[in-house]
Every structure is written in C-alpha cells, then in structure tokens.
Fold:
Amino acid sequence: MTPTPPGVELLAQAVTYTRSTLAAVSLDDLARPTPCDGWRLADLLAHLDDALDAFTEAADGQVWLSPASPALLGRPVATADELRAKAQDLVRAWRRPAPVGPVVGVGGVGVGGVEVGGVEVGGVGVDPTAVVLTAALEVAVHGNDVARSVRDLPARDLRRLPGPLARGLAGAADVLAPADDRTGRFGPRLAVPPGADDSARLLAHLGRVTGTTPD
Structure:
C-alpha cells in the first residue's frame, strides 16, 4: 500500500484547532461580523461547509470547485456540530492509503521518493500534497476567523493559532498565498511588529490581525 500524502498530520492539527473554535458557536453568533470583509459568521460557516465537502471529495481523486461567495447562504447553514463532524471526516478521508502517482514538496513539506495519487481539481491535475496543505491552511485560518467572531470562547488563547500549527503552515502559506498573488482569497500582507509570535506572523501574511474580535 502507498502512504498518505505528506501534510496530513498538519491537516489533523488544523482540524483539532478548528473543531475547538466551532464548539463555541451559538445561534446568537451567526449574525456577528468576521475578519472576512462583508461576511457574517453564517456566511463563513457556509463557506467552510463547502470547503470541507470539496477537500473531502478531493481525497478520492477528483473535485469540481466553484468560487466561494456569501450567496452560499441560499442553502441551509450547517450547524457547528455538523461542521465539526465533517472536519473529522476530512482527516479520515486523507488518511486512507492513496493510489500511486508523483509527489512534490510544498513550502518545505514533502517526502523524497514517496509516491501518492494525483487529484483532479476543476479538470486540472494537482499534486495531492498541495491539496492537503491548502486544506490545512483554509481550515486553520477559518477556524481562527470563527474564534475571532464568536462572543464567548472557553479559552481566550483560541483566538491565536497554536504555535506548532502556525510554524508548520508558514512555508506552505508562502507558496500557496504569495504576497503578490492573493486573487481575492486573502487581504494584503500586513506588517508584523518585532517580537511577534508565529501565529501573528502567519495571520499577518494572510492579511489578518491577531486576536481582535470584530464588532
């Protein structure tokens, strides 16, 4: 059997963090603003729902993606508990043994000589490691967006990405979200003050300010 793609354990860390932030969501929070300009928390959850479905489908080798939009609210919004279950299913899907195909490193994550299957995304072949790391980045950052949007958290430090997760995603973020190519996914890169931790650095690279809660 061939191994799962490099980066799956990083995805598992992202899912663990985001499941913790989703556990704090209440119905009263759905209309609250998020760090995503013009989106309320309900919009963000709808986008996260769509992304989890797409990345889980990608584990089987093919997925057709459509641009994310608050218009996704035209369908019922998944509950936080449903999203927590979907996030767990995402990791299980990518931990299954993969078919044979080439693999390359993304942001320093890769294993020389290991082969895993390719993924067809919107009709284009994509290295599965890139898909897994994109999923990890999306899940982690949107988990942080959720943490910054809800009114009450069981632990205030949930508004910061765990250090090991932020460090693990830093290299992938440089490749997957370069400063000169945001294509509407992230805001402009922000300046980072001296002494900033790994969470602040990663979020600033993606155009987000650490720790604040939108009002």
Remarks:
- The longest strand covers residues 119-121.
